[in-house]
Specification:
This protein is of the alpha+beta class. Helix content is 15%, strand content 28%. The chain has a 5-stranded antiparallel sheet with strand order 3-4-11-6-9, with no helix packed on it. It has a 5-stranded antiparallel sheet with strand order 8-7-10-5-12. Strands 1-2 form a two-stranded antiparallel ribbon. A hairpin with a 2-residue loop joins β1 and β2. The longest helix is centred in the first third of the chain and has 16 residues. It is globular, with a radius of gyration of 21 Å. 22% of the residues are buried.
């Protein structure tokens, strides 16, 4: 059966709608400040939100003045600057985070389900990588120095390890106002309720199959 021109148009329109719905909503006006209710950011579409005059003119809706150095812990510490901290980011599709790494500090394998990440190293040396999708699961690795920039594609598992004896600092730019984060180990081993050990036993390697890797060996 021959497809009509109208059917082709309908198919193309459906594809366009599906692609559009996979990312942050596009703004229909200059800005659409997110409302804050009970300390939880409530996002409302630019199509329906009625902006309050005092919020429109508020400087505080568009600034977050706490992206300074955070207190370094054993591994890593971060300061997000997304729509929860800057309500003016609502519908603009971008956010930022500063990450401070202790010596040999690790930002463990995680994903951002809603954003691609561009990482810029401000200080120190980072060993970074991401894993491609099934079935290949290829590990893409790189050692980054001050001034280097690296991209982590949306939804892929990635990590950063400070391989220096001093602290490291990086700025992560993300293509979503609320990129989200899922730390793999925390999600698998810290879920509530817990995942059955019968399930974990079948998918995790035994101790004999695991090998320890020292922080220095990644540079060899």
């Amino acid at each position: 059966m021959k497809m009509t021109v109208n059917n082709v148009y309908i198919m193309l329109l459906a594809m366009a709608v599906s692609l559009a719905s996979a990312s942050d909503p596009s703004p229909l006006q200059d800005y659409c400040v997110a409302l804050n209710a009970s300390k939880a950011v409530v996002e409302k579409s630019a199509r329906t939100q009625s902006l309050q005059p005092q919020m429109i003119s508020s400087f505080r809706s568009f600034v977050f003045q706490e992206t300074h150095q955070t207190k370094l812990g054993r591994w890593v510490d971060g300061t997000p600057a997304n729509v929860a901290q800057i309500p003016g980011l609502n519908t603009l599709g971008v956010s930022l985070a500063r990450v401070d790494y202790a010596p040999y500090g690790l930002n463990p394998p995680h994903i951002h389900p809603s954003a691609t990440e561009i990482l810029t190293v401000l200080e120190g040396t980072l060993y970074v990588g991401f894993v491609t999708s099934n079935p290949e699961n290829r590990l893409i690795l790189k050692v980054l120095c001050k001034g280097d920039v690296y991209v982590f594609p949306q939804g892929l598992i990635h990590f950063q390890l400070n391989v220096g004896t001093t602290k490291a600092v990086a700025i992560a730019a993300l293509s979503s106002q609320n990129p989200g984060v899922i730390t793999i180990a925390k999600a698998v081993f810290g879920s509530k309720p817990a995942i059955s050990t019968d399930v974990l036993y079948k998918v995790l390697p035994s101790g004999q199959e695991c090998g320890a890797v020292s922080p220095v060996s990644v540079l060899d």
